[in-house]
Structures are given as structure tokens and as C-alpha cells.
């Protein structure tokens, strides 16, 4: 049976059966810090009650391109392809109506059909939104029509080839493979991609490439863009394909134009990535640094010295306190708990998660070097059970967001990066801007941050904020805080996004990011590859 | 005193006082393998005798842009900026005349003057060839005028700023810094770039960036493009600058459009790179693998497992035999020499150079892992003296080429890369094509290859060939062999260049490399940044 995926909550994140609840302690912290919440129920009980404009009719040529069995126009399918999974998207889903949605969902079987669809759409002036897992948190799959009257969602779930070169340790993976599908197929060949973003369970390979995704283990395995060996782009104007060689000096890297192109230049049908042998050993631990600054210094020392473990993250004092209230001290047992308390008694510490994956000998060797850095930096060991507890909950964030939103909270995340020299400044500026914006809007909240992707020259910062929603003005409230945070990032010289990509939400900050000439160059590339301007209008480029 | 550099041989490589001679053993091998050579004297004894067209007059506005003291029109300065340092270039220098040369050498003092020069040239339609060290071996600084009547060589020697961020381990380096200048300035801050191509002594930072250079230690430190953190481009249309953050997901990577742009989009005035602490220990060793294939397998195992040392290279059997005849067994002493002989008695072995740089403990730890891989792969240890001997001679190749050319030889190198799966096929195809082309031209020769840059998914191959020159038809002879080798590379799916760049010589193979759509995209970018087409005509893009 050919059909789009319908296995997730249409109004929220992931498995419909997963609806976590907060315990009393967590509820207490929440109430204390954000105030009393008013429930935020779904306005539509099921997709049938949802309000969305009727679809525009599409030309018969489009039906001929893929066959009628590959075009879907039901309200549910259109709704499932009408937004990503950012706070703004879910807030609108709760409202029960959307201004726009795709006129149809088109599901090509292969690259030939994909090419045929783009040809028809370019000729007819139909906007095309490439759709992988639909997990964008920055409006990357928002069905914006630009100057076009009609729009399709181009669902890539049919493109799921897997081809492994065990000798070169590379794999060519179809764009439509979800994270677990790719890992299962690779696992049968004894290899792994090692790419585990929080969206792993539902996000796709094509999306990882189109957005320069980073995963929780990217400090060790490398960001997705760093593991791409070669890539293809099917663009309205023609096909682009880079050679599969480990490196080349033949001019500007077209691979790096395709990666991160977010569907505005064309469609990535598959991508060849470097893989690694499946690690026989995985070991996750928790540590407590004396402060966020001390934890960041430990990470810097490792990144500039012996190297980083696969996973290393440091929560700031706020996030440490908050996340321990929600998820810990469960997970800490015996002596680890005592040590935790000991550290906590001294002052607000910074929780660190450290994970090693590899051959037993390699894990042991690299752990010894890492532990030396941790201890020299004043961190205290909290044990493996707390690390495993993090691992078991590593994909839980978006489920918890559904719960919090249902209770009436605004929950959003954003991320940036900077050099080590300016990371502290960036942290203070962005956390301060979010906190001030929330407070001045009358909804003070929790503002958490962690450092989760590190490099020799700097690191990323990932912020989470939670507050009461401003009832009836949820989107305005969000826009105010987002603008305050984004302006603080720009003023500090950080990047507007380290791994969530640009999508719709970061478009206003692209000129600050790449400059006027940079935008002109990107527009020239777009005009060349997509002269009719049908590809993902309103994203990436102002 | 402001003036262009005039400290190298005008007709050859580097220090005029360095003119190495071959000893009897090397001469014997050469005579046996390539036949008797007829001396190839310089036709012009000094620049004054060289024949080059008179320069076209340039507009006063150009003089105003930099001041008259920064414009040079002497025959010597024009000659020194009239070609790179490939075999073709040096063969033409020996001939004593050139068809073209720049009308003037312009030496801007800073980025403001650079901008002013580009503005004048764009307005007046004057072709601009950015000039760093002038060491291109692929015609990258060839003064081709395209549709323009006038051409200047834009010498970047005035741009030599150095700014180190010790905490983030980055450095912003001016384009005109030669390798040793950059290393000396960095060394004063306790850091190193670790970029040591064979052209290190004379090539510049801007050239490294513009050509995606690789150095002898790039397996450890990373290729130049891999250490670029951010970069600027001064283009006729405007300035482009990427943010200095360790990573971003804000769209296609403009940094990767600038790096490798070979002067056809604009001028790179400076580049921010990741640096490392100066290694307190350096250790170089020689090993003998049972065969080139066995040596390559050892490197693959290390690249895919515990990691690579800073330097690792494997010569194929031909290069091993030839280079030992020229430079060894001097350097091997005592037991190492016996081991060498023992290996050699079994069959033709493959010489490996392995180098470690870093903290003593790091060198020792990584050496232990590397040695385990070497021994498991059947390699025999030849000792440190042979490794040091390689290190002392690491920049000698181009000097030796002058000697060989003077004796009457054609000496050329070329390089490519491929996945581990297809590396053997590429090696056989390219070596065979060169050998056949030389033989069918009546000048059989030496064809050597080494693997010198390795990655988890593949490696580069570097070929050297030496034969009798075809007197009076040196350029045609070279073109035949180069074409044969290039076609073999393309047919095997390798890249036309792993680190020498495209320049003039590889332009015919760019469509095979990036496809028609890829060329269209690069041309669109060029048209956007350089609408008058003044930047480095005839390079990179067909």
C-alpha cells in the first residue's frame, strides 16, 4: 500500500500513545517558577474537525508524472504536511485552523518520478515544498506559496535506498529514510551513521543534509554536514552531483552549496555519508562541574587537546537545577548521590553528560584522557546510572513539550554557536534577552542552556525556555521572545543557527549572517537552479 | 622600500643559490631508465634578455588607487609575475620568451587599496590575476586576458597581518604571508598552522585558501580547507565575509564557495584558520611495507580505526626503488639497513614515512597504536634516521626538478584521489596511462606514485614522472602525457585534482568533475560577483 506516513500525533510529537506526565516535584518547580498554568486544549478533536482552505485543483500532467495512486488530497494528509514541529506550528495546531496547507501531497516512487514532478511544477508554476520527516522546528516545511497559486508537498518517503561500501566505510542513503530505518539498515552491515538528533526517531536523511543537522553524538561522530562525502541535487534546471572521492581541490565545493540548501535550490534524493563500525561498547556517565564556565573550560581543554568523547554536554546552573528537579536525583544512587549532594551543597553546579562509543579498548583509552581533564577541571563523578538515565530519555524532550503545552505553557528552544573567546558573552546576552523579554511580557519563566556540540575553536549553546502562554496571543508572545533572543545573538556575533537551520523563522537574520553580497550570491545560485522560483518559497532567503 | 619579492630564481624554483647535483648512482639509474639526456640550457641569461611583449598603458586612475610607488612595470617584475612554477611554465622560461605577461604588477598596501584597485579594473575592463607566491603548478597565475586588452598582476605581498586568538586557537592571517612567515609569527604565540606543502617556503596563505592546498602533514593537521574557520572575499561586486563561529547551519556554506575559488570570484585578503599549540615533540620514521597495496591497507586501517599520525605516506614499488637509488640507502644505518635489505630481498617493498607531532605523551600513545597497525600489516621498521632524512629533504623536490630539467628531462607531477574501494584501480589506470603515453612518444620514463593524504573513506595518489624531453616539442610532449593521465583519472571516477587545484591545466576536465549544471552554478556565482569578468580569466571555469 502506497501512502504517506500517518503514524504520529497529527497535533504534536511522535507516537500518539506517548503522553508523559510530570510528577508532583516537577509540577511544584514549574508552578514556583512560571506561575499557575491554564490548560490549553486542542480545538479540533481529530483532523476531520480541522479548518483549512480547500485545495486548488492541480493539472492532470502532475497526476501523469507519478500516477494517481501517488497523489493524496485528504484533509488528514494535507494537514500532516501543513507544518513542521516547532512551538509556533503546534500552537497553531492547538488552535484548530491553519491559513494554508498544501493542495496535495505527492509521493514519488523514485528519482525519475521526482524529476518528472519538478518538470511539471516548473512548467506550471506550482510551488514545491520538499517534505522528509516534517520535524523542522523553524518552519522549514511551511507551505508558503510565494507568487504561485498552487503548492504541493513533495513527500520523499518513497526514496529509501541503502547502499553500503564496507571497504571505504561509506553509505549512500535515500532521503526518505527516517533515522531508525537508516540505522537498522546500516546495522545489518555492521556500521552506524552515529547521527542522533533529538528528532532522530522521525527526522529523515534528506532533512539532515538539507539542514546541516547536528546530533547528540556529533562531538564524536561529526555533524551531519561533516560526514557527507557526496550528494545529489535534483533541481528544476538540472541535476547536480558531486564526485564520490574523499576530497578534491577542483574549485568551490558544490557539495557545500547543496548541503544546507533547505529545499530552496532543489531536492536532495540521496546522500553518501561516511559511516563507522557499530560500536561494541557504549558508556554514558554524569559528572558535576563546579559551574557552567568550569564545565565549558573542561570541554575546551579536551577539544583542543586529546579530543572529545562521542557525547559531551554541560548544562548551565539553571538547566542543572531545573532538569534535576524534573528527572533527578532519580538515576543517582549510593555514593554518586552523596557526591551529587556534596557538590550541590557547595554551590550551583553544572551537570555534564559524557558518553563514549567504540571498541572497548578505545573507550577505555579515551575515557582515561577525558576523566583526567574532568578531574583537573574540578568535576565530580556522578556515575553511570545518571548517564544511562540521560540516554534513555534522550528523545523525550518533544513529548514533554506536548505535555507542557497541554498544561498551558510556551516551550521553545533555540541554538547558536561562537568561538570559545566569546561564548560566555553570548551565553549571558541570549539568556538575559530571553529572561528579560519573558519578564517584561508578564510571563517570567525558566531559561535553560547547555553546551552540546564542541569544536577546537568554539561550541554551540542550546537554550530552552518555558513560561506561561499569553492566552489568545501565543504567537505574538513567541515572536517577541524569539526576536529578543535573535537580536542578542546577532549583536554578539554568534550564528543565528548552529543546527536547526534557517527555515521561515530565521530569514530576517540572514542578512546579518551572510551579508548583502552573500545573499546576492545565494539568490544568483537559486535563480540559476530554480528560475521559476518554485522551490520552497519563503525559506532561507529573504 | 616597497617592492615585489625578487628573492627566487626567475627561471626556476626558490633560492638562486640552491642548485643540487645528482650523484653517480642516481645518474646511473636515470640513464638506465630514461636514456641519455641532452642538456637544456636557459636561452636567456638574465631577465634583461628575456623576450616579452611591451606592456599596455594603464589608466591614471589605477595609479591613483595605490600611489605610483606601488605599481611596477620593469621587465623583471613583469617576468616574475608572468607564470607559475609548473613544468610548462619552467619549460617556457628556459625558452627565453613568453607570449604574454602582465602589463604591470600592482602591490596594494591594504584591503582599502585592494578594493580601490578592483573598482578601477572593473570600471575599465582590466583583467586581474591575484598573485601570492606564484607557485601554482597548474597555471593558476597565467596572465590570460580573456576579452580584456589590459591585465595586471595583483601582488598580495602587502597583506601580511597576523592576529592570534590563543583561547579559541584561531588566527587571522593575511593572504600575502609566505608559509615560513606565517609559522614564525604563529610560533611567537606558541601555535602552529601545521600546513607544510612542498611549496611551503614560497607559497602564501591566500594561495593555500584559494587552491584548497594540502600539506605533507595534512593527514594529521587537516587540509587547508579543513582548518579554515572563516574567510573574506573582496570581489568586484562587493565584499563577502563569513561569521567567525565554529559552525553554522545557516544555509549553504559560502565559506566553501570562497575557499577554492582560485581568484576567479575575487581576492581573499585574509583568512581565519584553526591553529594548534607548537608540538614539543616531532618524530619521523621510515618503514617498509611488503607492497604498495599492503601499505595502503595499513593506512586504511589506521584512518578507519585509531586515527592517523600527522604524516603518513606510502611510495609504490617504483617510487621506492627509484627514491632509494637517489637518496638511500643513505640514512639507513646498522640494523635498520639489514632490515631494509631483508625486506628488499623478499620482493619489491613500499617505503613508508610516518611522522608524529605533539606532546610527548600524545606522540607516544598514538605511536603505539600506529606501530601496532604497521606491524600487523607486515611492515618492517627502518628507523628514525631515514625518517629524518625525508624530513630534511621535504622541500627539495622542486630544486631537483631544476637540476633534472637542466640535464634535459621532463619532470612533472599530478595528483588525484578516490575511495579506498577504487584506489587500486585508479593507481593502475593512471600509472599505466602515463607509462604508455611516454613509451608511445618514444621517451619511456620513470613513473612513481605515493599515497600521501588519507581519510577514513579514501586517499590521494601523487604521481611523478620523469623522461627525456622531446627537444623543440616539450610542450606538445607534456600535453600528450597530461591528457592521457587526466583521461585515465576521469574514466576511473577520481577527482582531477586533490590539492594542486584547477588553474589553467585542469579546465578541460571541470565538466567531468562537476557536470554541466555544476558549471552553470559556478558561472552564475562568478557573474554575480564579477559581472565584468575581470577576475583571473581562463582559470577554473571553461
Structural key phrases:
homodimer, 542 residues
Overall mean pLDDT of chain A: 95
Largest interface, and how many residues on either side?
A-B, 88 and 88 residues
Which sheet architecture does the biggest sheet of chain A show? 7 strands, antiparallel
What percentage of residues of chain A falls in helices of 4 or more residues? 25-40%
Structure overview:
The structure is a homodimer of 542-residue chains. With 542 residues, chain A is α+β, with helices and mostly antiparallel strands. Chain A is 39% helix and 20% strand. Chain A has a seven-stranded antiparallel sheet with strand order 17-14-16-15-19-20-18, with helices on both faces. A five-stranded antiparallel sheet of chain A has the order 7-8-12-10-11. Chain A is globular and about 65 Å long. Chain A starts with 23 loop residues before the first helix and ends in a 13-residue tail after the last helix. At the A-B interface, strand 11, helix 10, strand 13, strand 18 and strand 20 of A face strand 11, helix 10, strand 13, strand 18 and strand 20 of B.
Amino acid at each position: 500500500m502506497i501512502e504517506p506516513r500517518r503514524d504520529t500525533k497529527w497535533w504534536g510529537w511522535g507516537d500518539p500513545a506517548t503522553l508523559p506526565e510530570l510528577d508532583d516535584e516537577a509540577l511544584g518547580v514549574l508552578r514556583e517558577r512560571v506561575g499557575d498554568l491554564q490548560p490549553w486544549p486542542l480545538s479540533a478533536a481529530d483532523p476531520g474537525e480541522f479548518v483549512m482552505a480547500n485545495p486548488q485543483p492541480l493539472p492532470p500532467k502532475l497526476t501523469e508524472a507519478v500516477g494517481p495512486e501517488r497523489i493524496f488530497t485528504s484533509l488528514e494528509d494535507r494537514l500532516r504536511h501543513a507544518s513542521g514541529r516547532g512551538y509556533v506550528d503546534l500552537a497553531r495546531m492547538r488552535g484548530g485552523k491553519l491559513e494554508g496547507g498544501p493542495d496535495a501531497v505527492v509521493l514519488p516512487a523514485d528519482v525519475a518520478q521526482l524529476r518528472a514532478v519538478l518538470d511539471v511544477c516548473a512548467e506550471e508554476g506550482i510551488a514545491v515544498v520538499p517534505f522528509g520527516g516534517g520535524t523542522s522546528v523553524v518552519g522549514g516545511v511551511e507551505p508558503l506559496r510565494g507568487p504561485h497559486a498552487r503548492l504541493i508537498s513533495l513527500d520523499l518517503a518513497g526514496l529509501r535506498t541503502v547502499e553500503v561500501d564496507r571497504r571505504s566505510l561509506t553509505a549512500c542513503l535515500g532521503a526518505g529514510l527516517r533515522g531508525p530505518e537508516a540505522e537498522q539498515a546500516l546495522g545489518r552491515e555492521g556500521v552506524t551513521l552515529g547521527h542522533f538528533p533529538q528528532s532522530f526517531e522521525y527526522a529523515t536523511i534528506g532533512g539532515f543534509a538539507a539542514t546541516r543537522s547536528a546530533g547528540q553524538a556529533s562531538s564524536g561522530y561529526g555533524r551531519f554536514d561533516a560526514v557527507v562525502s557526496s550528494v545529489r541535487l535534483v533541481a528544476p534546471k538540472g541535476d547536480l552531483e558531486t564526485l564520490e572521492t574523499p576530497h578534491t581541490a577542483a574549485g568551490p565545493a558544490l557539495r557545500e552549496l547543496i548541503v544546507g540548501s533547505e529545499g530552496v535550490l532543489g531536492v536532495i534524493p540521496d546522500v553518501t555519508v561516511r559511516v563507522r563500525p557499530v560500536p561494541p561498547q557504549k558508556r554514558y556517565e554524569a559528572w558535576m562541574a563546579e559551574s557552567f564556565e568550569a564545565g565549558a573550560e573542561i570541554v575546551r581543554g579536551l577539544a583542543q587537546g586529546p579530543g572529545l568523547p562521542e557525547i559531551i554536554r554541560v548544562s548551565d546552573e539553571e538547566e542543572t537545577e531545573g532538569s534535576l528537579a524534573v528527572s533527578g536525583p532519580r538515576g543517582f544512587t549510593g555514593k554518586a548521590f552523596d557526591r551529587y549532594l556534596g557538590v550541590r551543597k557547595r554551590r550551583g553546579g553544572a551537570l555534564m553528560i559524557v558518553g563514549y562509543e567504540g571498541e572497548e579498548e578505545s573507550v577505555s583509552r579515551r575515557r582515561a584522557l577525558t576523566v583526567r581533564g574532568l578531574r583537573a577541571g574540578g568535576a565530580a563523578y556522578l556515575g553511570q546510572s545518571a548517564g544511562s538515565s540521560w540516554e534513555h530519555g534522550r528523545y523525550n524532550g518533544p513529548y514533554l513539550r506536548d505535555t507542557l503545552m497541554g498544561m498551558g505553557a510556551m516551550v521553545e528552544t533555540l541554538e547558536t554557536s561562537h568561538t570559545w573567546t566569546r561564548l560566555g558573552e553570548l551565553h549571558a546576552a541570549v539568556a538575559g534577552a530571553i529572561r528579560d523579554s519573558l519578564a517584561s511580557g508578564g510571563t517570567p519563566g525558566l531559561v535553560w542552556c547547555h553546551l552540546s556540540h564542541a569544536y577546537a575553536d568554539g561550541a554551540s549553546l542550546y537554550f530552552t525556555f518555558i513560561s506561561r502562554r499569553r492566552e489568545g496571543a501565543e504567537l505574538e508572545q513567541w515572536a517577541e521572545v524569539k526576536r529578543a533572543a535573535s537580536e542578542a545573538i546577532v549583536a554578539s556575533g554568534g550564528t543565528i543557527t548552529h543546527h536547526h537551520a534557517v527555515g521561515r523563522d530565521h530569514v530576517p537574520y540572514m542578512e546579518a549572517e551572510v551579508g548583502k553580497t552573500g545573499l546576492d550570491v545565494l539568490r544568483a545560485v537559486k535563480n540559476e537552479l530554480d528560475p521559476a522560483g518554485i522551490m520552497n518559497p519563503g525559506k532561507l532567503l529573504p
